[in-house]
Amino acid sequence: MTKEEQIRSELAKLAKKYGPDATIIAKVVSVNEDEFTCVVDEDGIEINDVRLRPVINTNESVTIIPKVNSYVAITRLEDDEEWMVIAVDEIEKYRIVNGTMLFEMHNGKFLIESGAQNLGKCLDDLIIEIQAIYAPKNSAGITAIQTRLKTLLSGS
Q1: The pTM is what?
Q2: Which residue from 39, 63, 83, 125 could staple onto 29, CB 3.0 to 4.6 Å apart?
Q3: Which top-level group of life is the source organism from (predicted)?
């Protein structure tokens, strides 16, 4: 090991021993979905405004909302006092946004939207039209399919 590598190694040990943790596991106390932040508790110390996304602005791509009372791994952003969730023990909601497209998983259902269009509502409308045509032949079967879709999709 070169002298430079030895110095670097010893400095890393010193920083780990006396410096603040860069990543910790903490319990989620509350979540603010509007602000994309949460409050966590790490051994009796509350950390406020922990980010759910690396940059808090109007752009959104992937957001994981943790369940309250679940555990998350958080990491310090750069050399600041800002923290961000990097892993979630239990998910309350999962959102992906791409332009006007939205995909969301919440309460055991999927929500898929593009602009004003909603997949659940479109499929519900389709089934209503099919029932109008085929109701006398197999109304119970079509209604059963409609019920199954409503257990999977939000907005229907």
Answers
A1: 0.73
A2: 39
A3: Bacteria
